[in-house]
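Regression check, 5'-deoxyadenosine case 463:
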Amino acid sequence: MATRFSIRTSGCQMNVHDTEKVANLLHHAGMNGAAEEADADLLILNTCSIREKAEHRLYSDLGTLRAWKAERAGRLIGVGGCVAQQEGDTILRRFPQVDFVFGTHNLRHVPALIDDAKAGRRRVETEENRSLERFDLPERHPALSHTTPGRAFLTVMEGCDMFCSFCIVPRTRGREISRPAQAILDEARHLVEHGVCEITLLGQTVNAYGRHDLRRGHSARAGTMPFHQLLAQLDAIPGLRRLRYTSPHPIFFDEGLIRAHGELESLCPHVHLPAQSGSDRILDAMRRRYTGDELRAIASALRGARPDLVVTTDLIVGFPGERDEDFADTLRLVQDIGFVDSYSFKYSARPGTRAPTLEDAVAPDRAQERLEALQALQRDLTIAYHRSRVGQDVEVLVEGWSRRGHQLSGRDPQHRIVNLEAPGEAGLEPGAFTWARVVEATPHSLLGEPLPPANLLGIASFR
Ligand code: 5AD
Ligand code: SF4
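Current build output:
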């Protein structure tokens, strides 16, 4: 019988997309997805090492998975992702229950690693690869075409050369590499032909796309172009209704990209702008290469180009040397820009990065207090924004059933969650677009009443 696999994913959208890529490869190799881990013969853990907690999760998962493995002979466990890239064969040595380990540049090798594991050869494949080969992947297998109806991720660049002093990513994802625009456009067209209407472009510093080629005068040879031109070409694909990108780095918001937000119809009015801190002193120690005022200027330029645009962010509290006044600067930045949402984290020291060598570590209690103060401010800003939307009509791309199960849930162009009342009557399904009137604001979402399709409304009023 064909091998049944299951994949657990931690971390960012790049990891979520890597999981999709691995699942796709396994389908092409004749394997099937298992409905539950209890039915699976193969379990892959796609790991994250951005903070210590995420890394520890792998080790505790591996402990409990010994029992899963012992339940049935022949079961296999594979470990991939950022922890795998960093730890490599240490994982095989420390955990006899692990059968293979693959790094972030080695997704293509997973089927071969599984074959070897079945033959009793435990292997590690974590070689860093600077070629474009890793993007040479088969088209989406028919079995996976409806996993996220209507939406898809598309990798445009990978890796990071920024080396922010707190961040492990340049060590787990390697050097920046941008795909040729033609390959990106072909993939986008293929997705749209297969029912995708919203594409999220992915890259660790996605708006740095093609920058090294441009700087070296290699763009033509590499087939890359400035990011805003890539967006314009994608926007021209008929049937592509929504275009998003994540995560950009603030220093790569040039005029062209700002203007694109005012000009490209499919480009969604939402930018995730990772600020990290509002203190210039801390930003400098973080090696972020911008100031708080530069962030304010980017946010207002974006809103100048597209007034309904929403800005969200990532923030770190408790970075070494962060004093009360630095944290006050962060609160002020959050208030000034009016982030509609933020992911905030306590600084976590990552081995191999620069920040742990800095002096004046912040006491954990102090960091916790700051996190709570920041999150309280964010809650106020989020709910105020949500309230400002009540009474508006929004276009929602339906994603699936909400957690409570009696509502459909989707996203508006600003990437806010919209839960839809009485979706059954409106005949809506995941993957569909609908208009809805916002009737209520909650801290995490909007509540909408589906509106009849515009043309029917028109006919009704005509009569
Ligand atoms: N500690 C805490 N947060 C971190 N991030 C990245 N590295 C660390 C770290 N060492 C956060 C940043 C980044 C997000 C993905 O994770 O805010 O934008
Ligand atoms: Fe990490 Fe900075 Fe690169 Fe983002 S830009 S992945 S925070 S090193």
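Comparison notes: Residues 50-51, 166-167, 274, 276, 314, 316, 345, 347-348, 350 surround 5'-deoxyadenosine (ligand 1) (CB under 6 Å). The longest strand covers residues 393-401. No diff flagged against the previous build.
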